[in-house]
Amino acid sequence: MTAVALPLSILEEDVLHFLGYPGGRRPASRIALLVDQAVKEARALAKGRGAFRRLPVSEASEIGLAHERADGLVIGLVTVGEGLERRVTELLGEGLDSLALLLDAAGSAAAEEAARRLSARMVGAKTAATADVSCRISPGYGRWPLAAQAALFARLPHEDLGVSLSSSMMMTPRKSISFALWIGAREIPGSGLSGCDRCGLSTCRYRRTDPAEPEAGPPPSRRRALR
Fold this sequence. Notes:
This protein is α+β, with helices and mostly antiparallel strands.
C-alpha cells in the first residue's frame, strides 16, 4: 500500500463537462481561449497521486458501509496536489475571476481523471474483465456518511499523499477524492469504474446529458461568472 504517481491528460472536454457544457458543445471564442489557457496551466500544475487498499467485505461496517453481497471491497484516495489550488487563489487575488473559475474546473477534471486511473489499478484488467465492479462511491454520497472519511484515512497512507482531513471531514487539498469499489457485486445497481454515465441522481449539476434530453448551456451561476 504505497503512494503511486498517476499521469494526467486533463482533456478539455472533461473540463467543459465540469463547467456544465453538454457533450460536443463549445463555449464562445473568448471563453474558449481562457479554457485552453486553464487546461495548459492545469497540466503543468496538477500532480496526480493515489493509494489504495483491499479490505475484507466483513470490514465494510467498520468504514460505515452497509454489508453487500460481493467478493471484495477496495478503498482508495487520490489527489492532484496543492499547486493548482494555490494558483487559483493567486488568480482570484489578481482579479482574474474567470480564469480562476476555469482553472478550478480543470482541477476537478484532473481529480476525477486521477480517480479513474487509480480505480483501474485497484481492480486490475483481469478482474474488470471477469467480475462486476460497482460504480465508485464516496463518503457523503447516498447512505454513506461523511464521517466515514476518518475510517478511510486511518486505513490509507494519506500523509504520503500530502492529504489531510479537517474536523469537519473536508480534505485538503480540495481536489482530492476518497472512495470505495465493490468487486463481484451481486445486487448493487450500476457498474463500471465511473458512475456518471449511468448515475440516477437527476439533480446533479454535473450530470451528463442524456441523448434524449434537450441540450442546455452551463448552469446559470457558471454563466454569470464567465461574463
